[in-house]
Write a structure and sequence with these properties.
Largest sheet of chain A: 5 strands, mixed
Strand content of chain A: 5-15%
Largest interface: A-B, 28 and 35 residues
Distance between the termini of chain A: 43 Å
Strand order of the largest sheet of chain B: 14-13-26-25-24-15-16
Strand order of the largest sheet of chain A: 3-4-2-1-5
Oligomer: heterodimer
Number of helices of chain A: 14
Strand content of chain B: 5-15%
Radius of gyration of chain B: 29 Å
Number of helices of chain B: 27
Helix content of chain A: 40-55%
Radius of gyration of chain A: 22 Å
Distance between the termini of chain B: 56 Å
Shape of chain B: globular
Chain lengths: ~425, ~800
């Protein structure tokens, strides 16, 4: 398939505005500014684009909500806090194709009526910061950002805000809190950011990859776009594959490619010809899948049918040598560390799950511990303020659901 | 109209509230930790989860607003399971140290665990460790007990506005810490203590000695410190105050207190309290019996009265004594001593301002409800920092700002630094110049409307010839940028409901009349409500009780014969018709020998009046000085007879606050001794004054007959909080209107004069923790007082250092 989002990334000068223009860059912005904002929103709605951050919310609808709110100013935030373990799909866009993101944001800002945009960048991506800032100043220089974009009297300013390393700040309301200079903790929803977002104003928060799709939609039109990949949620999708495969990396494929295709056709199969034991399909928070479920099409609609979620499209592959109890323990260690502490079940529950898993891993687990794990996870699930706690609980329940025997075998002894 | 069904009960609501509020209004209890009616919604503890039809998950009732047709269940198996789970989670890191925790017995976590929790926990791993912090003199923090509901942080940030504490760290390692580290650098309002649902933040005044079930009685009373008149409950055990506790449903303070109100109560048990009468013998004060002291006072006063006439005797009433006592005091002087020389410390600010403004704008024009401040669109603060002088009123100004009001401050108001839109700091002594320009700009932009029906003609006439310094000269004259001032004025004019808060500093400075006139005119032009800050709890009360040289109880002028004769009949005596001397005049007269004797009740003029040495020397010249107080004050030291009285919390009575709300003061502590009113009546009886009082109620009954303002007022009215101006009586003073002398000759030129440059002036800053009288005897307040200091411009300090005048400085 022709690459669009990751086009030209082999070019060592791909971050240069001149190179970007050579392959047709900023033409979509020019075209978009000739459309009315409402037409643009309709076009995005028609394209069927769904947010690539993990929740898969229809992008056009989100834009329409913010656009319809009479409050002003409005803000556009690019969520570049790529922190979900296993996920590195946005990084190539940020580091290799900054102008694609900037163009996408300029178009989006125009569509929703935002004059200010922020890229909330993961603190651990220092190179991306330099690259983005360089690209932003090029875009200002060439009139694609500023007070009078392309002489059309349209205003859009863009700046980069670096996070300080908290996973929770990838959650959109925690991200806003952090952007506002507060402690990164999720807010109560509703109100949603489209109505009360950054600084209390209507705010659209889109993922990097989502925004990178916008120029394509404008370029080829919603109709052509909606024919790429799965009919129910079309478009190109970047899958990032890590773990025990021959060729880990980022792969831009049509949305809806199956896990089997991704692992075996594109990533060269399981490393060293070993047996596949388990796959986490969309980042650590998404439910783990056993090998018999890898024929699932990786999109927002089909994944739930197979008992998981698309998430960020971060495929983590485990071969037969892996101890899944350890994986589960390691995941919970992460969730405990990243729990913000605002709500009780997540703050206290993640640590408790981690400590039970820790003692199983160390070989002092007891049979009852499995039920205890499930019970504690049940007390977290559905009772937390944001999805972080749910994610932690679901990791435990799904690892036990599919690999209970492995947990049982681990009781009272360390793994072999 | 919204109809919502909770547990099968249909509830109708006028406006959307949260499910939790709707349930509570209807007596349905939903357990919670992080929710608090005063605080911003949080939704963190997850204890208040409920089931809502058509919603897939349990919902936090504290954040979910009711919608029409919503069906809610607060009790079900799933909810019970969830609550049990939350409690189990909370107890993972919470020590089970209830037997040694002060909060036991009134702890939300304990109560709810008993009600909804599991009998045993399943958590086996070690709990979080966090040493208890005793770094602070007043607040103990035990972060192991903290359940991270963040009520304290939201209180500190969102209500008090001190922003002194925050959650640090993440997840279960989070804890609440002051930004300043171990010791708090805060306003010590202690409101974090009130809202903590567990024993994580405690008052050191009772830590490890408090047991909620050992409290013997709760006494509802009013704070003794300032004119706001906050209500709280004194919790008593063994005839001792265990702590003061505000209640969110009672009083104008709605559960908020300041440092003085919360921690300052133990001055009452100070070892320095006076307990026996003292009589000066051979130049030294020696203990005496009550009989001897009372007889001596009665005889000496009668002697002097008969020898020199009533005019030779003066009295200073107390803004810390009750209405009843002040009433008895002025009656003692008028009826017993035949003297109108009655005044008080209110003369140095509050009384002067009130008289002036009400003479111009009408009686009651300074009686405005404090609760109106947060609802103002603009607040102008002049003459002092309300967050220091009347802290809880100051919180209302902060709230106004948070709600979007324009706040304009004139002068040094550190407590409002983060809560103001415009801060103007004129050069010293140019306040009048600045106010003049502000007035003139308002007149120019709004046009004079002094001809408005009933409008004071003086103001209209004044505008015709009024020439203020032009805005463009403000930079040079007052040191205020003309664009900043212009914007501020424009901003204020564009607002409709405006409050003006006037502090003592503008009244105690030079050009008092000009300042007051200009402020009155500004208030008039803007149609603003006026608030006068009051540093003492009963300044208003003593004015109402007639502790003024020219006014009878109820604000009736003494020069009106009908008023006098009415009181003469009631009191059975003759009242001199001429106004008496004011406080400064009395001091002068004592010095010149025109006043021979003085009776000072609960006041310390040697300390509180300017030029201490002069005041002391003047009082020393008196033939006879009686001081009635609870401490051996600087004034008591020069007295001939010192009479120990009972203090706040040891007696019943009433206070009238700055908004003219009469509130009940209750006896909590039983001690031997006599109240001020009782001492006065004992002496009065010997002199032959009609004082048939056995209790404050007897006095109030007489007041309600004498003062038209208090006609028919009873303690029950105060109880019901209906003792608010104009009470039950007649609101307006009868008799000929007073004509205020608006501007003394020549004072207009002050608006053009440039004074106060190139010299050093020391401005006195009011302290948030101390007010100089009782607070000095509170060890708690003294422990957080960092000592006196002078703030000085670094360049000036350097210059003075070179001249050898300043030895060391410290950068703040």
């Amino acid at each position: 398939m022709e690459r669009y989002l990751l086009k030209d990334i082999e070019n060592p000068r791909s971050t240069d505005i001149g190179e970007y223009k050579k392959i047709g860059g900023y033409k979509s912005l020019i075209r978009a500014l000739e459309m009315s904002p409402n037409d643009l929103i309709d076009e995005v709605k028609k394209s069927g684009l769904r947010g690539r951050g993990g929740a898969g919310f229809p992008t056009g609808m989100k834009w329409a909500f913010a656009s319809a709110d009479p409050k002003f100013p409005k803000y556009l935030i690019c969520n570049a806090d790529e922190g979900e373990p296993g996920t590195f799909k946005d990084r190539p866009i940020l580091e290799k194709r900054p102008h694609l993101l900037i163009e996408g944001m300029a178009i989006s800002g125009y569509a929703i009526g935002a004059e200010y945009g922020y890229i909330y960048l993961r603190g651990e991506y220092p190179e991306a910061r330099d690259i983005l800032e360089g690209a932003i100043s090029e875009a200002y220089r060439d009139g694609f950002l500023g007070d009078n974009i392309l002489g059309k009297g349209i205003r859009f300013h863009l700046s980069v805000h670096r996070g300080a390393g908290a996973y929770i700040c990838g959650e959109e309301t925690a991200l806003i809190e952090s952007l506002e200079g507060k402690r990164g903790q999720p807010r109560i929803k509703p109100p949603f950011p489209v109505n009360v977002g950054a600084f209390g104003m209507p705010t659209v928060i889109n993922n990097v990859e989502t925004l990178a799709n916008i120029p394509l939609i404008v370029e080829i039109g919603a109709d052509a776009y909606s024919k790429i990949g799965s009919p129910e949620c079309p478009g190109p999708k970047i899958y990032c594959v890590s773990g025990h495969v021959e060729k880990p990396g980022v792969y831009e494929l049509p949305m809806g490619s199956t896990l089997r295709e991704i692992i075996y056709d594109h990533s060269g199969g399981v490393r060293g010809g070993k047996e596949l034991k388990a796959v986490i399909p969309g980042g650590i928070s998404t439910p783990v899948l056993p090998p018999d479920r890898i024929d699932c099409p990786m999109d927002f609609v089909n994944m739930p049918r197979y008992g998981s979620m698309l998430g960020s499209g971060a495929v983590i592959v485990f071969d037969e040598t892996v101890c899944l109890v350890k994986v589960c323990y390691r995941a919970l260690k992460f969730f405990e560390h990243e729990s913000c502490g605002k709500c009780t079940p997540c703050r206290e529950g993640t640590g408790w799950l981690r400590s039970i898993l820790g003692r199983i891993d160390e070989g002092s687990g007891r049979k009852e511990d499995i039920d205890l794990l499930l019970d504690v996870a049940g007390n977290i699930s559905g009772k937390t303020l944001c999805p972080l706690g749910d994610g932690a609980a679901s990791v435990v329940t799904n690892f036990i659901r599919h690999f209970r025997d492995e947990f049982e075998k681990h009781m009272g002894k360390t793994c072999v | 109209m919204i109809t919502v069904t909770i547990n099968g009960r249909e509830i109708r609501l006028e406006k959307p509230v949260t499910v939790l509020e709707a349930a509570e209004m209807n007596g349905i209890e939903i357990p919670h930790f992080c929710h608090h009616p005063l605080l911003e919604k949080w939704g963190g503890c997850r204890m208040c989860l409920v089931e809502v039809d058509k919603m897939p998950k349990l919902q936090t009732s504290c954040t979910l607003y009711v919608t029409d047709g919503m069906v809610v269940r607060t009790e079900s198996e799933e909810i019970a399971r969830a609550r049990k789970g939350i409690l189990e989670f909370l107890l993972i890191n919470h020590p089970l140290d209830c037997p040694v925790c002060d909060k036991a017995g009134e702890c939300s976590l304990q109560d709810l665990t008993v009600k909804y929790g599991a009998a045993a926990g399943r958590f086996e791993e070690g709990k979080r460790k966090h040493p208890e912090s005793f770094d602070d003199p007043l607040i103990v923090r035990n972060m192991e007990r903290c359940i991270l509901c963040t009520r304290c942080v939201r209180m500190c940030d969102g209500v008090q506005g001190a922003s002194a504490i925050a959650v640090t760290n993440r997840g279960s390692r989070s804890s609440v810490e002051p930004f300043s580290g171990g010791r708090y650098n805060c306003e010590y309002c202690g409101n974090c203590l009130t809202v903590c649902p567990v024993g994580a933040i405690l008052s050191r005044l009772h830590v490890h000695s408090y047991r909620s079930w050992l409290v013997e009685k709760d006494v509802r009373t009013v704070c003794p410190y300032c004119g706001v008149g906050c209500s709280f409950v004194l919790q008593m055990r063994d005839n001792r105050i265990v702590r003061s506790l505000p209640r969110s449903d009672v009083g104008i303070n709605r559960g908020i207190l300041c440092a003085k109100g919360r921690f300052g109560y133990e001055f009452i048990t100070s070892s320095e309290r006076l307990r026996t009468p003292l009589i000066r013998v051979d130049g030294e004060l020696k203990p005496a019996t009550w009989d001897d002291a009372i007889t001596l006072v009665a005889n000496r006063l009668m002697e002097i009265r008969d020898k020199y006439g009533g005019g030779s005797i003066g009295g200073i009433a107390s803004a810390r004594c009750t209405n009843e006592e002040n009433y008895v005091f002025q009656k003692f002087l008028r009826a017993g001593m035949r003297s109108n020389n009655i005044d008080s410390i209110a003369r140095t600010g509050f009384a002067v301002a009130q008289r002036y403004i009400e003479d111009v704008l009408g009686q009651g024009s300074t009686a405005n409800l404090i609760s109106g401040i947060p609802r103002s669109e603009a607040v102008i603060v002049v003459g002092g920092d309300p967050t220091h002088i009347n802290p809880v009123l100051g919180i209302h100004v902060r709230e106004a700002f948070r709600r979007g009001a324009t706040v304009l401050t004139v002068g040094y108001t550190p407590g409002l630094e983060r809560f103001r839109t415009h801060g103007l700091s004129p050069y010293p002594f140019t306040e009048a110049t600045l106010l003049g320009t502000i007035l003139s700009e308002i007149v120019n932009q709004k046009g004079p409307h002094g001809e408005k029906v009933g409008g004071p003609q003086e103001i209209a006439r004044f505008f015709e010839e009024f020439k203020a310094i032009p805005l463009s000269d403000m930079e040079r004259v007052c040191g205020i940028s003309c664009s900043a001032l212009g914007n501020a004025i424009k901003d204020i004019i564009s607002r409709s409901t405006i409050s003006i808060i006037i502090g003592p500093e503008i009244i105690q400075s030079t050009h008092v009349r000009t300042n007051l006139f200009l402020l009155t005119a500004i208030a008039y032009m803007l149609g603003a409500r006026i608030y006068l800050l009051s540093e003492r709890p009963n300044e208003q009360g003593l004015i109402d009780m007639g502790c003024l040289p020219d006014t009878l109880p109820g604000g009736r002028p003494i020069d009106v014969e009908s008023f006098r004769t009415r009181d003469e009949e009631l009191w059975g005596c003759e009242i001199p018709s001429a106004a008496g001397l004011t406080l400064p005049e009395m001091v002068e007269a004592a010095n010149s020998g025109d006043i021979k004797a003085m009776y000072i009740m609960g006041e310390n003029p040697v300390y509180n009046l300017p030029d201490s040495a002069f005041v002391r020397a003047s009082l020393e010249k008196l033939e006879f000085l009686v001081v009635q107080d609870i401490f051996m004050t600087e004034t008591a030291e020069v007295a001939d007879v010192v009479l120990p009285s009972l203090g706040w919390s040891e007696k019943d009575g009433s206070y009238t606050n700055l908004e003219r709300r009469i509130q009940r003061l209750r006896k909590a502590v039983e001690v031997e001794g006599m109240e001020d009113w009782r001492i006065l009546s004992e002496i009065g009886k010997k002199i032959g004054i009609r004082m048939p009082y056995n209790s404050p109620a007897d006095i109030l009954e007489e007041i309600s007959r004498v003062s038209p303002l208090h006609a028919g007022l009873t303690y029950d009215d105060m109880e019901r909080n209906t003792g608010l101006w104009p009470y039950k009586g007649e609101p307006l003073r009868q008799g000929p209107p007073r004509t205020p002398t608006l501007l003394p000759q020549g004072s207009l030129s002050i608006c053009n004069a440039q004074t106060g440059r190139d010299k050093l002036y020391m401005a006195i800053e009011r302290h948030m923790f101390l007010s100089g009288t009782m607070s000095r005897y509170s060890s708690a307040l003294m422990s957080i007082y960092e000592g006196a200091s002078v703030r000085i411009n670094p360049d000036v300090a350097r210059r003075l250092g070179q001249e050898g005048l300043v030895s060391s400085t410290e950068t703040m």
